[in-house]
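Subject: Sanity check before I submit

Could someone independently write out the structure tokens for this chain? I want to compare against mine line by line before I put it in a report. The sequence has 135 residues.
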Amino acid sequence: MTLSDFLAFYPQFSGVFPDVVLDSYIQSASCRFTDFGEDAEEAMRLYIAHKLTLYARSMPSTLGASGGVSSFSALASSGDGGRITSKKVDDVAITYSAGASSAAGASELADLKETTFGQQLLTLLRLYAYPRYVP
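---
Independent answer below. Compare away.
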């Protein structure tokens, strides 16, 4: 998979991240999903989109790449896998779903539950009974 292949499918990631970050995730995806046959491209795209979404969430809201803060912040919230499970207005109560950090050690697949891209990738991993995913 090339950068242009990925960005043609997910143009919202274009011009937002440094090239070194994009290249790193593309190389990583290319090594992980070679045995997925005709679903390899989809698995790679989902993996890259998932990792970029997590990367965007890890950045301070004041930072952004060439796409600007608004693009970076929008991507950080896109692909959200339902991190807020409930909220209450009076007396302000918010409940978050268990994230990868709280599920550490419970499963190698825990980080995939954090984004919709990761959840879609989980479906493919189950189809191929892929037991060796390492985040």
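---
OP: Matches mine. For the report I'm noting this point. Strands lie at 84-88, 93-96.
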